[in-house]
Each structure stands twice: as structure tokens, then as C-alpha cells.
């Protein structure tokens, strides 16, 4: 190890300038521009002329080495990128998680008054590059800061990082607190009732506003009887808030009327309840055990009929269970169009098959299965041989392989006598 | 052979528990700094393309989610000297890492450079009962290794099988399922002072964490700093830390020798502190900023302000040239490297096919160290940085963190050690119930 020379004291400014100044910089040594001037040549001229005057003019005090300062700063800058993190790593008290706990050099004692007021530039540079606290007040430098958490703080921190504990504290305890408060408030029945009453009052005040009131009901395009029936069924005590109306239930009650096929309820502007109704269309008159009834094409009852002659243009059907097969009856009646002038109606026999009843008490008895071909066959016979104009009471087509004609008694006698005379 | 290393087995079980939980802590207790990392073990974790983190060298499968470093306190030569101080420093580092990871760490894997490690080469040989090598044959051959008397007060830290030989074929890494009649194995045994380890364990216990493994810093920094071909062909990793220097020799991807020297960067700092009559922190700063070991003529002209806090103007204005600083530092660095040379010579490093030397550790960042080391240790010297792992902060990627990163790899992919294989049944204590259970498990 070479002997360490004691540091020489030189008069201020008399140190030979090794690193600063014009001329080619040594390799690896950063070039110094102590004046911060952009024009390097000009700075060099000034420097060669009188460096210390310029230094003084730039605000430096004697006793502070301009060159050494510049040198230290520049070297730091040059090495900063290479050893930036290392410097932080080597700075005492630094840690990855303690960015805010800055490295602190050992406390600086104030220089005695007698010494020239010099700043320790090297130390200042090192300290300036160290991360600083954001805390606006600098702590007293004399207090040695121990970055280590206390045992209690460490344990609490670990507990806080336990997921279950954390969740119970951040989620569980607020919920529990709120629940407890609500429970406490709602424990008193009088207060509960008061709250319910208050809320209902607010609700009623809102929905009973004039804007929501329904004052009239209009049922367009229906007969006055049906309109009256609808009004009776709706049974509304107007005016009424639209929020208090159950339109679905009202619609169901309107559609429960036999004459109504579908109903559509709408609250139109101006507080008008618009009831649009599609009526059922009468298709047949059914003479049942209880009386005469009007049915639509689907066999649905429309209304009771006081007398048959009130409605003459509709087909008459009779017999139990006829209402369930109205569509078939209508089809048969349509096929039997050539006999329309003679057709009195259709009778459901034994709730299983149809009889066509003509005037002169003639009947065409149709089978239970496939009545249509049988009827067409009877019509063909009538067309070809004028069957129904003869003295026949029943055309029995119930068995397709064995059609039977039932003659009236006179005709039968005549037939017998002809046969006997022929023998 | 004696006890089947209950403590090591217990630590393995603890490690397995940590793996299941998915979070494990890494703690490198050094003389200069204490580094704590938090690993999230996730086998499906794939680092982004182009991040430099590979898949093959054991870097995948985990992610660093927390890191904390603090100045070490109460540690000398890699060993605990003042436990309460060390405990505070460990708490600081662990809390910082936990805060960054936003999770608590219950299991920690530890590495240490001190404890005067000694390594032994063991050999064992057994006749196979069957013609093929089964799992329990490995256990038998490991148990058959002749363990030297390493003395009182020492514990086994690593016992790694490094080579298997089946009849005349040697160099097998995994002989299981192969056919032969005689199985031999070489094992590398590393012992440390029991007191040093138990001090560290005690320290960790006071920090409320469970120990899930202990590793030698020499081994783990070699794992992190040596690249694959160096580990395969033969290389020495020299981890120059603050208070201790760890030496490990690798070949065929196994550590075959490890040693520790109780010298390090702190001694250099100490020399500077004494030589320049400054306090330790200033000496450290001067060493870090201006230090070196190779003086040039330029350095005579480069004056370093020493500074000081004495209040005496003359003393606080002292300067020293960089060559003087180098003059202080170089002999100590040479001494360290010569010690390393002596250890490597003792280990027979000259006989390895490749004699790559990798310098790592915080003190290896001294400028000019590689040139000096090339003179003393041999021509093939390079500076080593740890492997890149997923999620490691930039600030923790320097050579000072080789041991920490190696410990991450160790935690995620531990090498098979002796206690990972079941000892043969006849070596179990005469507990008939356990033996019956074992028989039941083996045969059903």
C-alpha cells in the first residue's frame, strides 16, 4: 500500500487545473465546462484570460474549488447510468420497498464560524441524487431513523395481508355494522309501522297525480248491449290512477264475456281507457236441451236465443255434443248446398255421428267415420236417380258397404203389391 | 449411516405445503444486504416474448411478485453476530417484499454464505436385488455411501447424488429402470456449522415464518450465474459478497465442490476506512464511486474529495488520488482472489475439461476486477449476472442478487437430495406398524 500523503492545503484557486480547460479531453475523462456556457471556445477564452475572476463573477466564493466541483458533478453524471442503482443499493438504509425512506448520510455538523463558509459539494451531490422524502418538513438529521418495523407493526402488517382477515375487516365489518344499525332501528314496531306508512304515503302521492288518472272508458265499434256488458264487467270506479289498474286482469274479465273473441286494453292519452274488442261471429244455432243458443264457427257459445225465427239465415244443429263439432257440421252443410232449400238442419246422434234432416221428414244418416264421402254419394244418387224426391224416409249410409233405404209405409205397400202381382 | 435427516425432510414437507399454497418467500441473508423475494408458483406462468426470460433453464413456472432489500445489520462473515439486529433487518426486508406482493409469506427458503462450509465426495455401492434398478435401490445406494466423520457441531446442508454408475457404465444421471447388477453412486455432501444455521432458524422463527429449506449461497449463486454449458463442462462460480466469498465448482450440471472464504467487500471498505481515516459509510461511498483495482496514469490526476464530518476544515477538505485508492483496494482484492485460487487448487479445478471462472456477487462490480482475476485465477474469467427470471425488478438483477435468483430456481426446481429418497426399510427404526404400512403400500 503506498503511503498516504497528508492532504496539502493550497491557497484558494491555486490548484493546478488538470481536468478543466480547453484542449482534447483525455479518453475516459469527461470534458469539463465549468461555466455552463454553451459556446465552448468562448468559455475557453474567458478561462484562459482569468478563470478566478470569472469564477468569482459567477458567484463562487473563494475557498471553493470551481474545478473540483465541476469535476465531481461531471463524473457523477457520466457514471450515473452505470452505477445508478448500485449507488442506491450501497446507500445506507435503502431498500426496494422504502423509496420514501431516503438514504441519510451521517449528520452533518455545522462548520465553525471561523472556517470559510464552504459547502461540501461532494456530499451535497451524493445527497441530491438520493431519493428524497416527499414530506415537506425535513426531519431533524440528528435522529437516526430505524427503517425496521417493530415486532407489533410487523405482525399487524402480516395480519392485514391475510386475505380472510382483510376481507372480514373491509367487507364483513361494514356489512355487520350497517346490519346492526338497521336492526336497531327496525326493532321498534311503532317505528316500523311509521316507516311503512310514510313510504306508502309517498307512493300514493306519486301515483295519484292527475297525470296518471284515468277518467273515461271507450269501447268503440261494438253493439250497445255488449258495451254495457263490458262496462259492467270492468266495474271501475272512475277516476282511478293507472297504477292502480291491473290491465291484465281487466282484460281477462272482458275476455270472459262469451261474445268477445279478443280484447285489447290500452290507456290512451287524456286519461282514456281504450278497450278494443273483436266480437265472435255467429255461425250456427244450436238447439240444446236447455234452449236455443248462438255458436260461432269454433263452437263457442255467443248468446242465448229466444226464438228460432229471430235468426233464420244460420244453420240449425241439434243434439248433445253438437257444439263440439260445429266445424264439421258447417262443412257438411256446405257440401249439401244443392239441398239447401230442403235442409232443415243437422242432428248429432248419440254424440257421435250426424243426420241431415230435410223437410218431409227425410233424413240422411251419415256414418261416424268419413261422413263427407257418404254425403257426396247420397247427393250423387239424388242427382242421378232423383232419390230424395221419392217416397223415402231415411237414406241410411252408416255402413259404407251396405246403404239402406227406408221407404214410407205407403210406398212399401205399393212395392209389395207390385212384387206379388209380378209373381 | 445415522439419522435420515428428519429436519431436512420436515423442511421438504414445508416446501411442498408452500408449493400447494402457491407463495413462497426467498431470503438471502448477506453481510451487506438482506434481500427478500416473494415467489408466486404457477406452473402455467409464461413470461412475455422478448423479455429475455427463457423457458428451459428452470426460469419458468414461477414469478417474482415482491422484492425487498435492506442494508444488513448484525451480520458478519455471513453469520449472525447480533441476532436482534438481524431480526430487524429481516423484518424490514420481508415486510417490504410482502407489501409489494400484497400477500403474506409463511414459508421462507433461506440461503447463507457463512458457516464455514466444507464439502465431501462420497461413494457408495450396492448389489441389485433385481436386475433392474428400482426406486428403493437408489435409496439403498445413497444409504450405502460412506459418510466421513465431519465432526461435532456440523450439519449436512446438501447431500446431492452427482453421478451413478451401473456395472461398468458411469456418468448416469438417472439409472432407474436400467438393467445391471451393481449400482454405485457418487454423492456430494456439504456441511456447515450447526450453530450458524440454528441462529438463522431462530432468527426466522422470531419473524413468524416457517423455514422451508436452507441452501448454500455458493450452490445457488452458481445455479443462477453459470450458464448451461458452463455448468455442463465445468466452471467455478465465485460469489464475492460483503463479508464472505463463496466458491462453487460445477460440472455435468452438478455442484461437486463448494467452499467459503471469510473475506469480502466489507474488508476492502474497512481498509479504505482505515487508510483514509474516514468513517465506514464514506469509505463505502468512495469505494463504490471511485474504486478500482487497475491503476493507470490517468488515475494519478484524478483527485477524490474524501470529505469528513469532523468540522475541521483542513481534514474535511482532504483529497486523495484514485491511484492511491486503488493502492489500498488492490492488495485486499488480490488476497481474496489468492484465497480463491488456493481453494480451487485444493479442489482440483485444474483437472476439469473447461476452467471457466465466473465472478459474481456485489463486490465483483469493482472496475478492473476481471483483469486482475484473469491473472490470478486463469484466463477464462467473465463477470456473471444472475439468470433473468419472470417479474424480477430491474433493481434486483445485478450480480449482487445472484444468490437470491439462484434461490428462486432452487425453490421452484429443487435438485434431488439424499433425503428425497426413502431409506431402505431395514434402516427404519423397529416400528412394526410403519413397516407394515410401508409393506402394504409397496405391495398393493
From TrEMBL, chain A:
Biased composition annotated in UniProt, kind: Low complexity: 103-119
Boundaries of every Cell division protein FtsQ/DivIB C-terminal domain copy: 285-398
Keyword line: Cell cycle, Cell division, Cell inner membrane, Cell membrane, Membrane, Transmembrane, Transmembrane helix
Keyword RNA-binding set for record: no
Subcellular location(s) of the protein: Cell inner membrane
Signal peptide start-end: none
Basic and acidic residues composition-biased segments: 39-53, 120-130
Region (Disordered): 1-74, 103-130
Comp. bias (Pro residues): 1-14
Pfam families linked: FtsQ_DivIB_C
Keyword Transmembrane: yes
GO cellular component, one term: plasma membrane
Gene Ontology annotations of biological process type: cell septum assembly; FtsZ-dependent cytokinesis
Membrane topology classification: Single-pass type II membrane protein
Domain of life per record: Bacteria
Biased segments, Polar residues type: 63-74
Family membership: Belongs to the FtsQ/DivIB family. FtsQ subfamily.
Function: Essential cell division protein.
Protein name from the UniProt record: Cell division protein FtsQ
Organism: Rhabdonatronobacter sediminivivens
Protein encoded by which gene: ftsQ
UniProtKB/TrEMBL annotation, chain B:
Primary residence: membrane
Gene3D superfamilies listed in its UniProt record: 3.30.420.40
Membrane topology: Peripheral membrane protein
Biological processes annotated in GO: FtsZ-dependent cytokinesis
This protein's UniProt keywords: Cell cycle, Cell division, Cell membrane, Membrane, Transmembrane, Transmembrane helix
Subcellular locations according to the entry: Cell membrane
Stored SUPFAM superfamilies: Actin-like ATPase domain
Domain SHS2: 24-225
Top-level taxon in the UniProt lineage: Bacteria
GO cellular component terms, A-Z: cell division site; cytoplasmic side of plasma membrane
InterPro entries: ATPase_NBD, Cell_div_FtsA, FtsA/MreB, SHS2_FtsA
This protein's record includes keyword Transmembrane: yes
Residue ranges crossing the lipid bilayer per the database entry: 21-39
Pfam families for this protein: FtsA, SHS2_FTSA
Family, as annotated: Belongs to the FtsA/MreB family.
Quaternary assembly: Self-interacts. Interacts with FtsZ.
Record function comment: Cell division protein that is involved in the assembly of the Z ring. May serve as a membrane anchor for the Z ring.
NCBIfam families: ftsA
Protein name: Cell division protein FtsA
Organism: Rhabdonatronobacter sediminivivens
Amino acid at each position: 500500500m503506498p503511503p498516504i500523503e497528508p492532504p496539502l492545503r493550497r491557497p484558494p484557486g491555486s490548484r493546478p487545473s488538470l481536468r478543466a480547460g480547453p484542449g482534447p479531453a483525455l479518453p475516459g475523462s469527461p470534458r469539463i465546462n465549468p461555466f455552463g456556457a454553451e459556446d465552448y471556445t468562448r468559455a475557453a477564452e474567458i478561462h484562459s484570460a482569468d478563470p478566478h475572476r470569472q469564477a468569482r463573477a459567477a458567484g463562487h466564493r473563494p475557498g471553493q474549488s470551481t474545478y473540483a466541483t465541476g469535476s465531481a458533478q461531471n463524473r457523477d453524471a457520466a457514471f450515473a447510468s452505470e452505477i445508478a442503482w448500485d449507488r442506491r443499493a450501497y446507500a445506507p438504509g435503502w431498500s426496494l420497498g422504502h423509496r420514501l425512506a431516503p438514504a441519510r448520510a451521517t449528520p452533518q455538523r455545522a462548520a465553525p464560524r471561523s472556517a470559510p463558509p464552504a459547502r461540501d459539494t461532494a456530499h451535497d451531490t451524493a445527497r441530491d441524487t438520493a431519493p428524497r422524502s416527499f414530506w415537506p418538513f425535513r426531519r431533524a438529521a440528528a435522529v437516526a431513523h430505524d427503517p425496521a418495523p417493530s415486532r407489533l407493526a410487523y405482525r399487524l402488517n402480516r395480519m392485514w395481508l391475510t386475505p380472510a382477515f382483510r376481507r372480514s375487516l373491509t367487507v364483513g365489518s361494514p356489512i355487520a355494522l350497517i346490519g346492526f344499525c338497521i336492526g336497531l332501528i327496525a326493532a321498534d314496531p311503532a317505528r316500523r309501522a311509521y316507516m311503512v306508512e310514510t313510504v306508502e304515503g309517498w307512493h300514493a302521492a306519486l301515483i295519484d297525480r292527475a297525470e296518471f288518472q284515468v277518467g273515461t272508458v271507450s269501447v268503440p265499434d261494438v253493439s250497445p248491449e255488449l258495451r254495457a256488458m263490458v262496462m259492467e264487467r270492468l266495474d271501475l270506479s272512475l277516476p282511478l290512477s293507472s297504477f292502480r289498474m291491473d290491465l291484465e286482469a281487466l282484460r281477462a274479465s272482458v275476455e270472459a264475456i262469451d261474445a268477445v273473441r279478443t280484447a285489447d286494453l290500452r290507456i290512451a292519452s287524456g286519461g282514456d281507457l281504450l278497450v278494443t274488442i273483436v266480437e265472435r261471429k255467429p255461425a250456427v244455432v244450436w238447439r240444446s236441451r236447455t234452449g236455443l243458443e248462438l255458436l260461432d264457427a269454433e263452437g263457442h257459445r255467443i248468446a242465448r236465443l229466444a226464438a228460432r225465427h229471430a235468426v233464420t239465415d244460420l244453420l240449425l244443429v241439434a243434439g248433445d255434443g253438437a257444439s263440439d263439432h260445429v266445424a264439421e257440421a258447417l262443412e257438411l252443410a256446405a257440401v249439401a248446398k244443392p239441398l239447401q232449400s230442403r235442409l232443415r238442419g243437422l242432428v248429432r246422434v248419440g254424440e257421435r255421428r250426424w243426420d241431415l234432416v230435410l223437410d218431409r221428414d227425410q233424413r240422411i244418416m251419415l256414418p261416424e267415420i268419413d261422413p263427407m264421402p257418404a254425403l257426396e254419394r247420397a247427393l250423387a244418387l239424388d242427382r242421378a236417380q232423383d232419390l230424395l224426391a221419392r217416397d223415402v224416409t231415411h237414406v241410411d249410409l252408416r255402413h259404407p258397404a251396405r246403404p239402406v233405404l227406408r221407404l214410407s209405409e205407403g210406398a212399401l205397400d205399393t212395392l209389395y203389391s207390385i212384387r206379388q202381382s209380378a209373381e | 449411516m445415522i439419522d435420515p435427516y428428519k429436519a431436512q425432510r420436515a423442511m421438504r414437507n414445508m416446501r411442498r405445503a408452500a408449493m400447494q399454497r402457491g407463495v413462497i418467500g426467498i431470503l438471502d441473508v448477506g453481510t451487506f444486504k438482506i434481500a427478500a423475494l416473494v415467489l408466486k408458483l404457477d406452473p402455467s406462468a409464461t413470461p412475455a416474448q422478448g423479455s429475455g426470460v427463457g423457458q428451459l433453464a428452470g426460469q419458468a413456472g414461477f414469478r417474482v411478485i415482491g422484492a425487498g432489500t435492506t442494508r444488513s445489520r448484525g451480520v458478519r462473515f455471513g453469520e449472525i453476530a447480533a441476532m436482534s439486529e438481524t431480526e430487524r433487518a429481516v423484518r424490514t426486508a420481508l415486510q417490504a417484499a410482502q407489501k409489494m406482493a400484497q400477500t403474506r409469506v409463511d414459508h421462507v427458503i433461506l440461503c447463507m454464505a457463512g458457516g464455514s462450509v466444507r464439502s465431501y465426495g462420497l461413494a457408495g455401492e450396492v448389489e441389485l436385488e433385481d436386475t433392474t434398478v428400482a426406486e428403493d435401490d437408489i435409496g439403498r445406494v445413497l444409504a450405502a455411501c460412506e459418510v466421513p466423520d465431519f465432526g461435532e457441531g456440523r450439519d449436512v446442508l446438501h447431500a446431492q447424488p452427482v453421478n451413478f454408475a451401473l456395472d461398468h457404465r458411469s456418468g448416469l444421471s438417472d439409472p432407474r429402470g436400467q438393467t445391471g447388477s451393481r449400482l454405485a453412486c457418487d454423492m456430494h455432501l456439504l456441511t456447515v456449522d450447526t450453530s450458524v444455521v440454528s441462529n438463522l432458524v431462530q432468527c426466522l422463527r422470531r419473524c413468524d415464518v416457517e423455514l422451508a429449506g436452507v441452501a448454500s449461497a455458493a450452490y445457488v449463486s452458481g445455479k443462477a450465474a453459470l450458464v448451461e454449458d458452463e455448468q455442463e463442462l465445468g466452471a467455478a462460480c465465485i460469489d464475492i459478497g460483503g463479508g464472505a466469498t463463496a466458491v462453487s465448482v460445477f460440472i455435468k450440471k452438478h455442484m461437486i465442490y463448494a467452499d467459503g472464504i471469510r473475506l469480502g467487500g466489507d474488508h476492502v471498505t474497512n481498509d479504505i476506512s482505515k487508510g483514509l481515516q474516514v468513517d465506514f459509510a464514506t469509505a463505502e461511498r468512495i469505494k463504490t464511486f471511485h474504486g478500482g483495482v487497475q491503476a493507470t496514469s490517468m488515475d494519478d490526476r484524478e483527485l477524490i474529495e474524501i470529505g469528513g464530518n469532523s468540522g475541521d476544515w483542513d481534514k474535511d477538505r482532504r483529497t486523495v488520488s484514485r491511484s492511491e485508492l486503488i493502492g489500498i483496494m488492490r492488495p485486499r482484492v488480490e488476497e481474496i482472489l489468492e484465497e480463491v485460487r488456493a481453494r480451487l487448487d485444493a479442489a482440483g479445478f485444474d483437472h476439469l475439461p473447461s476452467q471457466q471462472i465466473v465472478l459474481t456477487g456485489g463486490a465483483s462490480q469493482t472496475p478492473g476486477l476481471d483483469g486482475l482475476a484473469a491473472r490470478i485465477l486463469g484466463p477464462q474469467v467473465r463477470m456473471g449476472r444472475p439468470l433473468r427470471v419472470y417479474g424480477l425488478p430491474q433493481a434486483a438483477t445485478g450480480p449482487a442478487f445472484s444468490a437470491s435468483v439462484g434461490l428462486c430456481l432452487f425453490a421452484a426446481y429443487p435438485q434431488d437430495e439424499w433425503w428425497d429418497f426413502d431409506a431402505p426399510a431395514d434402516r427404519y427404526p423397529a416400528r412394526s406398524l410403519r413397516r407394515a404400512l410401508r409393506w402394504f403400500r409397496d405391495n398393493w
